[in-house]
Design goal:
- Helix content is about 30%, strand content about 20%.
- The radius of gyration is 23 Å and the shape is globular.
- It has 16 helices and 25 strands.
- It is of the alpha/beta class.
- Strands 1-10-8-6-2-3-4-5 form an eight-stranded parallel sheet. Strands 14-13-12-11-15-20-24-25 form an eight-stranded mixed sheet, with helices on both faces. The protein has a three-stranded mixed sheet with strand order 17-16-23, with no helix packed on it.
- The longest helix is centred in the C-terminal third of the chain and has 13 residues.
- Its EC number is 2.8.3.-.
- It is an enzyme of class 2 (transferase).
- Pathway: Lipid metabolism; butanoate metabolism.
- One of its GO terms (biological process) is butyrate biosynthetic process.
- It comes from Pseudoflavonifractor capillosus.
Length: about 450
């Protein structure tokens, strides 16, 4: 039987496909933009009609739209959404008692699925149309998908002709022979991530970082307004021959490519290619990646491997955080016990960039934030809030940057760290931070005031 015959034999409607799901099943929706449309909607309809279909556990992460199965009135009683990395949508689902975070180190995800995830009963993901060789491209996201599909009892793909084809190596596609059911989707527009506009604080942070980036550097840019500001400044700069090796690919990379800044010719690995493990942004980004040989999508156990990251000379890692204490502990995923995002690959790139020859890791934040009552709070605090999670330890942080300055914390003793961190805090909070440092015995009387 040839590939076309297999395809036709396995073709189903969305409703026919989700009929295989049983009470108590574990169902994987993939990651970020991989989440299915029609299959999700068909399963939500089935849940609405069959009250006995209950106890379903879903896995996903960084959802760019609310899964239809979570919108049912009794969703909290019948399903659980388990997230590898929370978006704003998943934070709201947490408040409703539907979503729970699964702590991860992103580089280990493929091993989790192969060795530690107990069950994958059904996997349902969006893919590009089958090619002449019988393969469906994972498109904008490889992350851990190949390992997930290896473990799945039943594999269902939802074909979306709008999904671009991203080139890469192993673990970037699945053959029709390994698929159980094919659903031809309605061709929905892909989920997009709005571009965060940089604030004045983001711009000030970006200017400091860009001043330390040399020609030929290799970049990892995270999500948010500040990385976008860095990308915009780099596009306007005199720097040349930059490379990309990043977990998440966003629109700012297109700006760099169109400005002629990206050649990747100095990369020690994958020379000439901008490497990523998933992309999230605008349609402009997705169209730019489509069949573009200068972009290379790869599984997360390769992209986020510390040894692979550190193999690039002048590796520059740029990530955001929500809170840093005077000891240098970075909390980038929670505010107290309120979960915000996830640990993701921050540890991987912080460690990998520092190990790189000439490499630098930057943890960035605005000096203050304003709560819902309009009160200002310092992001640089004596100790991280009770219940907050440490994402990057004090031993691993390299550069810390706010709009008030930048400090390299490597090799500094406790009092030097406290002095350096306080020096880039908002002026309105510096005296109380000094008082707290004195009380914790990490402030010398001879320190500058």
């Amino acid at each position: 039987m040839n590939d076309i015959q297999l395809y036709l034999k396995k073709r189903r409607t969305a409703r026919e496909a989700v009929a295989c799901i049983k009470p108590g099943d574990w169902i994987d929706y993939g990651f970020c933009g991989q989440m299915p449309y029609d299959l999700d909607r068909a399963l939500a309809e089935r849940l609405a009609e069959e009250p006995e279909l209950t106890g379903l556990n879903f896995r996903g992460g960084l959802a760019l739209r609310q899964p239809a199965v979570t919108a049912l009135p009794d969703a909290a009683e019948r399903i659980t959404w388990n997230s590898w990395h929370c978006s704003a949508i998943e934070r709201r689902l947490m408040e409703q008692g539907i979503c729970y975070y699964a702590p991860i180190r992103f580089s280990e995800m493929t091993r989790y699925y192969r060795e530690n995830v107990e069950r994958v009963d059904v996997a349902m993901i969006q893919v590009s149309p089958m090619d002449a060789h019988g393969f469906f491209s994972f498109s904008l996201n490889t992350t851990y998908l190949a390992a997930m599909l290896e473990r799945a009892r039943t594999v269902i793909v939802e074909v979306n002709p709008r999904m671009p084809v991203a080139f890469g190596g192993l673990g970037t596609a699945i053959h029709i022979s390994r698929v159980d059911m094919v659903v031809e989707g309605e061709g929905h527009e892909l989920d997009q991530l709005p571009t965060a506009q940089p604030t004045q604080e983001d711009q000030a942070v970006a200017e400091q970082i860009v001043s330390l980036i040399p020609d030929g550097a290799c970049l990892q840019l995270g999500i948010g307004g500040m990385p976008n500001a860095v990308g915009a400044l780099l596009a306007q700069s005199d720097l040349k021959d930059l490379g990309v090796h990043t977990e998440m690919l966003t629109d700012c990379v297109v700006d760099l490519a169109e400005a002629g800044k990206l050649t990747g010719r100095n990369k020690n690995l994958d020379r000439g290619s901008a490497v990523f493990t998933f992309a999230a942004g605008s349609r402009r980004l997705y169209d730019f990646i489509d069949r573009n040989p200068t972009f290379m999508v790869s599984p997360v156990d390769y992209v986020n491997d510390i040894h692979v990251i550190s193999a690039h000379d002048n590796m520059i890692s740029i990530n955001n955080t929500m809170e840093v204490d005077l000891f240098g502990q970075v909390s980038a995923e929670t505010m107290g016990t309120r979960h915000i995002s996830g640990s993701g690959g921050q540890q991987d790139f912080v460690l990998g960039a520092y190990r790189s020859k000439g490499g630098k890791s930057f943890i960035c934040c605005s000096s203050v934030y304003t709560d819902r009552q309009g009160r200002a709070h310092s992001r640089l605090v004596p100790t991280i809030a009770p219940g907050s999670v440490v994402t990057t330890t004090r031993t691993n942080i390299h550069y810390l940057v706010t709009e008030y300055g930048m400090v390299n914390l490597k090799g500094l003793s406790a009092w030097q760290r406290a002095e350096g961190i306080i020096s880039i805090a908002h002026p309105d909070f510096r005296e109380e931070l000094i008082a707290a440092a004195e009380e914790m015995h990490i402030w010398r009387r001879s320190n500058r005031r």
